[in-house]
Amino acid sequence: MDFAAALDVAIDHLESLKRQGCKTVMVDRVLLSELLAPPVSHSPAPSTPSSVPSGTPPARVPTSLTSTPRASSGTGVVTEVSASNKNMKGGPGSASFALDREGKEKAMAVLREKILACVQCPHLVASRKNVVFGVGSIHSPLMFVGEAPGADEDVQGEPFVGAAGQLLTKMISAMGLTRQDVFIANVLKCRPDTPGQTSGNRKPRPEEMRTCLPHLREQIRLIQPRVIVALGATAVEGLFGRASVQITKLRGQWTQLEGVDVMPTYHPSYVLRTQSLPIKREVWEDLLQVMQRLEMPISAKQAAYFTKA
Ligand code: SF4
Questions:
Q1: Distance from the CA of 188 to the center of ligand 1, in angstroms?
Q2: Which of 163, 186, 182, 143 lies closest to 271 in space, CA to CA?
Q3: What is the predicted pLDDT for the residue at 97?
Q4: Whose CA is nearest to atom 4 of ligand 1?
Q5: CA of 13 to the centre of ligand 1 (A)
Q6: Pairwise CA distance, residues 222 & 239, whole Å
């Protein structure tokens, strides 16, 4: 993300916190001194290596805002890696400030209430059984994002609990983690309706994902993960507002969203449908990249998963 985009994210996040009743944020000493320093001239940031373009609004404040390390040891630093983060390194993403643990939990509780009460899509409100907010650790550096709840998720109010969800749980387990160590969410928080059908799910429409995306973005801004795994083409389309993507071309390629590294990969339901060893290996290689990015230890056994039937 370039500087101007990062600044807009920061401003949006601060305004969101203010609306949620937050009156203070803690900032580390180094960053504070940089913020108080006179502005310096700003050169255009290099373009993102991402294959998914991001906007380039004009810059408004010094570049020093983006130079803060992901986690600092300075007094007053409020970012921290949860004890439940196991071997994952790195706390928040690139945002230059963070709430303390309690403030984050309070802000997320407020956001949860807001999302659970959302009625922006009347057709989905009429058919949903639950709003599927997301599940897991809001202090995790790792998020998994899918497209939308299906029938099972709608009933249970939790993402990825059907057959595809069970496979996702196994994938997370193969990484040496549990569902409680990561945060799992969807772009769309309500199940896409299926009028006239008694079973089956449908793909969320672009306009539905556009309407709901601000909810996910607020979750991302609060959680500040270091890595997001985008599960499937529709999730990538929803996350980046793209009309259509070829997941076969994007998977395995790092991109960025709001300063957070994003790894697109296949949706677990596609892996289930194909039952192909090479596809399983490709997904696993994507997750190995995620583990490397999070500086997680990788055993020889893990490195060799899905190399033979
Ligand atoms: S899908 Fe999202 S935006 Fe639409 S009603 Fe549900 S929570 Fe609100």
A1: 7
A2: 163
A3: 53
A4: 121
A5: 20
A6: 16
**What is the tens place of the pLDDT at every residue in 194-224?**
988 877 889 999 999 999 999 999 999 999 9
Pocket residue to mutate for ligand 1, from 128, 145, 147, 211, most atoms within 8 A of Cβ? 211
Closest ligand 1 atom to Cα of 124:
5
Place of tokens 């069970």: 166
Q: 184 — phi, psi (to 5°)? A: -120, 130
Has this prediction a pTM greater than 0.70? yes
Q: Is 135 in the pocket of ligand 1 (CB under 6 A)?
A: no
Q: Domains in the chain, please, with CATH? A: 71-303 (3.40.470.10)
Tokens of 189: 């928080």
Please state, in angstroms and rounded to a whole number, the distance separating the CA atoms of residues 309 and 143.
29
Q: What is the DSSP string of 227-280?
A: EEEEESHHHHHHHHT-S---HHHHTT--EEETTEEEEEE--HHHHHHH--HHHH
Tokens 């790894």: give the residue: 263
C-alpha neighbours within 13 Å on the C-beta side of residue 250: 27
Residue that has been written with the tokens 């009460």 in this structure: 117
